[in-house]
Design goal:
The structure is a single chain. About 50% of the residues lie in helices and about 10% in strands. With about 450 residues, the protein is α+β, with helices and mostly antiparallel strands. The strands form four sheets. It has a four-stranded mixed sheet with strand order 1-2-7-4. Strands 3-11-8 form a three-stranded antiparallel sheet. Strands 5-6 form a two-stranded antiparallel sheet. The structure holds protoporphyrin IX containing FE. The site of protoporphyrin IX containing FE (HEM) has 23 residues, from helix 11 and helix 16.
Length: about 450
C-alpha cells in the first residue's frame, strides 16, 4: 500500500468551485498537473499567484535574491494577533536584527546542551503512553503533547505539567480551532478593503496566550538580573546582544519570539512525528529495524544521535512525503520574468514543498515510502535541490537542526518501547491546516513491546 495522498481536483474548475475547494483544503484543491509542472499560474479577478516548482526558480526566490521576495503581508494578517512582531512575520532590517539575536541559541554546539531536556521529554512521553498501551489512540494528540513538552523544557526549563505551560498548551489548541480561516486568509489575497475580522474567540485566546508567555518571560528577566537563571534557550536569547547594534530583546519583543517558537516549534514537529508513526505502522519491517537500532538509546549522551541513522532517514522521508509546512508564500517586489512569463510586481509567489517533494520529473518513485532513497544518487541529488521541508536560504527554519535531533530521538524512543499498528479502515487522509494534518486524526493501536 502506498502512503495516502489527497485526490487532485479536475484540471478545469470554475473560480467559485476553486475557492470552495481551497477553503476546505489547499492540497486537494490543486490539479494533478502540479506534480509535473515547473511553474503554474493562477489567475483570478482578485489576484495572480505563481507556483514555482522548478529547483532553479526556488533557488532564485529563497537563496539568490531573498530580499526581493519578502514574506507576503497576507500571512501576517492571519497570525498577527498571536505572533505580533515575531521573526516569522517580520521583513527587512527588523527581521535581520532578530535573526542575529536568535540564531546563536540554535547553533550546532548548543544542540548538545539542549539534548538532556529533549531526552527527558521523550522519556516523559513514553511514560504517558504506557497508560494507553493496548488501546487505539489518536497519535497527533500524543505527538503534540510531546513536542510542546520539548519546547517548554528547552526554552524555559519547565515541563508541560507546569501550570503556565499547560495553560498555554490548552489555550493554543482552542486558538487553532477558532482559526479555520487561516488557510484562506493566508493564501488568498482578497483585496485589502475586505475587512479581516478576527473572531472574538481568536482574539481572546491570543491575548491569554500572550499574557501567560509574558508572565514566563518577566519571571525569567528577573532571574537573569539576579544571576540565578538556568542556562536554557530563553536565557541565551534574552542575554544575547545584537553584534551590530548591541541591542537585546526587551520583554515585549521576547514575548513575540517565544510565541513563534512555541507555534513553529511544536505544531510542525508534532505533525511530522505523527505521520512518521503512521508510516511505521504501514511498513512494519521498517518499524522493526528502527526498534532494533533504538537499543542504542541505552547510551543517554548526545553521542547516541550518530547511531540513530535509520531513524533519521525515516524521519527525513516522512518530511518529504508529509512536509508539515506544505506551502510558503512570498511577494514579488519588482516585475519579473520567469520561464518566459511576466510576473507582475505584487504577485504572490507560492513555493510548495508538498509538490516539489513529489515532483514526478525529479524524484524516482515520488509517491513511495523508501527511506533508503537518501543513499541513492537520485535521492542525494534531490535532497540538495528539491527538498525544502525547512525552507532554504537566509530565512531557513531556525529550528531545523533542533528538529532533526528531536524528531529521530522521540521516534526511536517510542519505537523502543512500543509497537504502533495500523487500524483497518482508519487510514488518515492528509489535509493542510496550519500544518499538514490528518482529516480525522491519525489513529493507531499502541502495543507495548
Ligand atoms: C519538523 C519540524 C519543523 C519544520 C518542518 C519546520 C519548518 C519551517 C519552515 C518551512 C519555515 C519557513 C516558513 C516560511 O518561510 O514561510 C520555518 C520557519 C521557522 N521555524 Fe521551523 N520548522 C520545524 C521546527 C521548528 C522548531 C523546533 C523551531 C524552534 C524551536 C522552529 C522555529 C522556526 C522559526 C523561528 C521560523 C521563522 C524563521 C524566519 O522567518 O526567519 N521550527 N520552519
Amino acid at each position: 500500500m502506498r502512503p495516502p495522498k489527497p485526490p487532485s481536483r479536475p484540471d478545469k474548475v470554475s473560480l467559485w468551485r476553486y475557492l470552495k475547494l481551497f477553503r476546505q483544503d489547499i492540497l486537494s484543491a490543486q490539479p494533478a498537473r502540479l506534480y509535473r509542472a515547473w511553474m503554474a499560474e493562477f489567475r483570478t479577478p482578485f489576484f495572480r499567484s505563481y507556483l514555482m516548482n522548478q529547483p532553479e526558480l526556488v533557488e532564485t526566490v529563497l537563496k539568490t535574491r531573498p530580499d526581493d521576495f519578502p514574506k507576503s503581508d497576507r500571512i501576517r494578517e492571519g497570525l498577527r494577533p498571536l505572533l505580533g512582531e515575531s521573526v516569522f512575520l517580520t521583513n527587512g532590517e527588523t527581521w535581520k536584527r532578530q535573526r542575529r539575536i536568535i540564531d546563536p541559541a540554535f547553533e550546532g554546539g548548543r544542540l548538545k546542551d539542549t539534548f538532556p531536556a529533549m531526552r527527558a521529554a521523550s522519556e516523559a512521553c513514553v511514560a504517558r503512553l504506557r497508560g494507553q498501551a493496548g488501546q487505539v489512540t489518536e497519535i497527533e494528540e500524543v505527538t503534540s503533547h510531546a513536542a510542546a513538552d520539548v519546547i517548554f523544557r528547552t526554552l524555559f526549563s519547565i515541563p508541560i505539567e507546569h501550570e503556565v505551560a499547560a495553560r498555554v498548551f490548552t489555550r493554543f489548541r482552542a486558538y487553532q480551532r477558532e482559526q479555520p480561516l487561516l488557510n484562506l486568509a493566508a493564501f488568498i489575497p482578497v483585496p485589502r478593503w475586505v475587512p479581516r475580522l478576527h473572531s472574538r474567540g481568536t482574539k481572546d485566546n491570543a491575548a491569554e496566550i500572550r499574557d501567560l508567555i509574558r508572565q514566563l518571560t518577566a519571571e525569567r528577566m528577573a532571574l537573569i538580573e539576579d544571576g540565578t537563571a538556568p542556562d536554557d534557550l530563553a536565557t541565551k536569547i534574552m542575554t544575547t546582544a545584537d553584534p551590530q547594534t548591541g541591542d537585546r530583546f526587551d520583554t515585549d519583543e521576547m514575548v513575540d519570539q517565544v510565541a513563534i517558537f512555541f507555534l513553529a516549534g511544536h505544531e510542525t514537529s508534532a505533525s511530522a512525528l505523527a505521520w512518521t508513526l503512521y508510516l511505521m505502522a504501514l511498513y512494519p519491517e521498517w518499524q522493526d529495524r528502527l526498534a532494533e537500532e533504538a537499543k542504542a538509546l541505552d547510551d543517554s549522551s548526545f553521542a547516541v544521535m550518530s547511531k540513530l541513522r535509520l531513524s533519521r532517514d525515516v524521519f527525513r522521508e516522512a518530511l518529504r512525503l508529509y512536509p508539515p509546512v506544505p506551502m510558503m508564500v512570498r511577494e514579488a517586489t519588482c516585475p519579473e520574468r520567469f520561464r518566459d512569463r511576466e510576473v507582475p510586481r505584487g504577485a504572490q509567489i507560492v513555493l510548495s514543498p508538498w509538490h516539489l517533494h513529489r515532483h514526478e520529473r525529479l524524484w524516482e518513485r515520488p509517491d513511495e515510502f523508501d527511506p533508503s532513497r537518501w543513499q541513492t544518487e537520485n535521492g542525494k541529488q534531490c535532497q540538495r535541490t528539491a527538498y525544502i521541508p525547512f525552507s532554504a536560504g537566509p530565512r531557513v527554519c531556525t529550528g531545523a537542526g533542533f528538529a532533526m535531533v528531536e524528531g529521530p530521538l522521540i521516534l526511536s524512543m517510542l519505537l523502543r518501547h512500543f509497537r504502533f499498528e495500523r487500524v483497518e479502515g482508519r487510514d488518515p487522509m492528509p489535509v493542510a491546516h496550519l500544518t499538514v494534518r490528518a482529516r480525522d486524526g491519525i489513529w493507531l493501536r499502541v502495543v507495548e513491546r
